[in-house]
Amino acid sequence: MTTRITRIAVHDLRFPTSKSLAGSDAMNAAPDYSATYVVLHTDSPDDLQGHGLTFTIGRGNEICVKAAESLSGLVKGLTLEEITADMGAFWRRLTAGDSQLRWLGPEKGVIHLATAAIVNAVWDLWAKSAGKPVWKLLVDMTPEELVRCLDFSYVTDVLTPEEAIALLRKQSPGKARREAEMLDQGFPGYTTAPGWLGYSEEKMRRLAREAVAAGWSHVKQKVGADLEEDMRRARILREEIGWERSLMMDANQVWDVDQAIEAMRRLAVFEPMWIEEPTSPDDILGHARIRERISPIGVATGEHCHNRVMFKQMFQARAFDFCQLDAARLGGLNEVLIVLLMAAKFGVPVCPHGGGVGLCEYTQHISLFDYIAVAGSLENRVLEYVDHLHEHFIDPVIIRHGRYMPPSLPGYSAEMKRDTLSRYQYPDGPVWSDIEAG
Amino acid sequence: MTTRITRIAVHDLRFPTSKSLAGSDAMNAAPDYSATYVVLHTDSPDDLQGHGLTFTIGRGNEICVKAAESLSGLVKGLTLEEITADMGAFWRRLTAGDSQLRWLGPEKGVIHLATAAIVNAVWDLWAKSAGKPVWKLLVDMTPEELVRCLDFSYVTDVLTPEEAIALLRKQSPGKARREAEMLDQGFPGYTTAPGWLGYSEEKMRRLAREAVAAGWSHVKQKVGADLEEDMRRARILREEIGWERSLMMDANQVWDVDQAIEAMRRLAVFEPMWIEEPTSPDDILGHARIRERISPIGVATGEHCHNRVMFKQMFQARAFDFCQLDAARLGGLNEVLIVLLMAAKFGVPVCPHGGGVGLCEYTQHISLFDYIAVAGSLENRVLEYVDHLHEHFIDPVIIRHGRYMPPSLPGYSAEMKRDTLSRYQYPDGPVWSDIEAG
């Protein structure tokens, strides 16, 4: 009895978030949170489907949609069983098997974003077929089974399959205890709600108070548009959250290396736990230099770090203190898992990026698995939480007192409601035709 | 009197090169050399147009076309005069001005390839309007005028506008002499003609003899599919070209770091001048390690190095001996110029990538300008020449005795014949409908 992928539908979904300035930062003034959304239809008698997405911020989502359509020929007609028998080979086939498509990256930009949507949909399908949430599917694998899902090309100089198995084995003894702990207490999160640019002082104070009341111990602020303004807003946030809670800052890539160092020397008085994306996401050596110069403020980056080769070098160069991988910027869960393993080897905590539609739904699985089976520690781990658009998901994240509670429904949690798929379809869905009509 | 860009047409052009195995290497077994081809139409009374392209190898070219169409909204309606008054600002507007599109890179992959096609078309338009070939337009600029064309964001820690001006001024005295030298003797090239994978021994020997007879002093061989086979083919080539000529090798990214070191230790007996793309193009630190371990064989890479930030780190990490920038993988000529300036500062010779349709037409301008105004030296500089598809261009490259002769027609030389634009249009042009029909 096999499950064959018979048809792949790709949706262009966009949410008009630019109207509220939620999601506004120094680089991205007015994003419309969007998804290239893939549905794998199958021949299963109970209509099993795999849903997956990649995140963009509006214009250009149509290019990712086109790329996902071009890639889908590599997946259509395969059975779930042949994919999961050697998921590493499947991933390699998708990223390197068609050298003409590979040329467009390789493994970066639009083609890799589109790869993520498809790969994540395959994991959703697998987990649903297994009747488990993805984090649990992963936790229940043996080290050998897990490593078989991975493609180690270009990283064997720092991590071999044998080392990966050894890392996983080392954490095996505590897995059951940590799983029980997570089910009971959840995974610690942090919120960006009060920290977006473009909010009035009154709104910032209100949201900061609400965050404290809701139990958040970590709050993040956007910086980088104007340094005096950043200082003023940091002062407000410190007044509201106090000094016993942690304040993080996020510059969204607006600075050059020396500018970042200067800005953070002034912002240091507010004792930020980290500065996120201080400069170009490609600048491994630049991040290493910034880190050296602004210690003890940590350096965090990764949401735009496009593949395992870039992360490998971030680790090798000791370029960051917090690894903020993205569930859909990397080529889906397989590549995320490689990065988790390298992070464990180098002792760098992983705090995945959550600012986007569907990303929190994904990252909870990643951080749960990381804690239970790979890192085995919560030290310096906090999982970003962004509070909008969760209402569109069938199985949205559940936050209790600032912690993510483990999802229990089968799948990878990013399946959207049928109504959302039609209403937010761009450009023809009613939400957009209404905007068009003014 | 202004020239306004009134309409932007984007063509999907593909050439069925996979039939001949010309262009076949260890990573790219059967490429169909393709171009996302942009035409900027203007309101000029004499029908001035700007033509520009980016190179892909077949499937997926439709995604680049889509991206170029999405970007063209940022260019339509501008005048050539407002663009050239501050070309640095124009470039920044195209790469960072629309943050929603920027998200898809930033500055990498499909969106950056599409940027290159548009930017290169603007340079073609500018040069045609000025009545000069692009290399001469650049050579005739003052250092200040040239630097105004550039966006230094993310590289100011290694190169400021002031340093760039100083670098250019240093070479000013010899410019006229070097220009005359180039017009007389041309720029030295090398050929890959005998070295593609998939050729019989007889064909290799014949092409190698032809190369020697045609005056080529440097010949490149593809490697990486099978080491014994690479050894056998290198032996054949050395037999034909002798030891007084240079042999280069190109692995097209197929090896991991340690594999590359091992393979090159064996291939060292053939005394290759360089190994090109030994591993992932993103692996700056990996290239540095390979370079350290296989000296005196040089390391060459850059055709997939996606932006100035990556090149900056290649220079900082002393990761390569030859900088093989690509005229259309970087975001067009503006970003190429920044890399030329950094290369001059770090003393790394630039040998641009030519393996693709239209790339030789572009790179001759780059290397001529580099020699005349930036580097001022020919030492270790050779410009790749690939011998197919030139018949499609209005102003194809002219090779004399293994050297590129400077183009004299106004523009950037990548304008294709009208007949080619219709015949090779994918999928509807007659060349493709004939193939479709079998």
What's the overall average pLDDT of chain A, rounded?
A: 96
Structural category of chain A is alpha/beta
Q: First CA to last CA of chain A: what distance?
A: 52 Å
Main sheet strand line-up of chain A? 5-6-7-8-9
CA radius of gyration of chain A: 21 Å
Give the ordered list of helices and strands of chain A: EEEHHHHHHHHHEHEHEHEHEHEHHEEEHH
| Named CATH architecture of the domain at 168-418 in chain A | Alpha-Beta Barrel
How would you name the oligomeric state of the polypeptide chains in this document? homodimer
Helix tally of chain A equals 18
- Structural shape of chain A: globular
Q: Approximately what portion of the residues of chain A adopt beta-strand conformation?
A: 5-15%
Pfam families (chains A, B): MR_MLE_C (PF13378), MR_MLE_N (PF02746)
EC number (chains A, B): 4.2.1.68
Organism (chains A, B): Caballeronia ptereochthonis
Cofactor (chains A, B): Mg(2+)
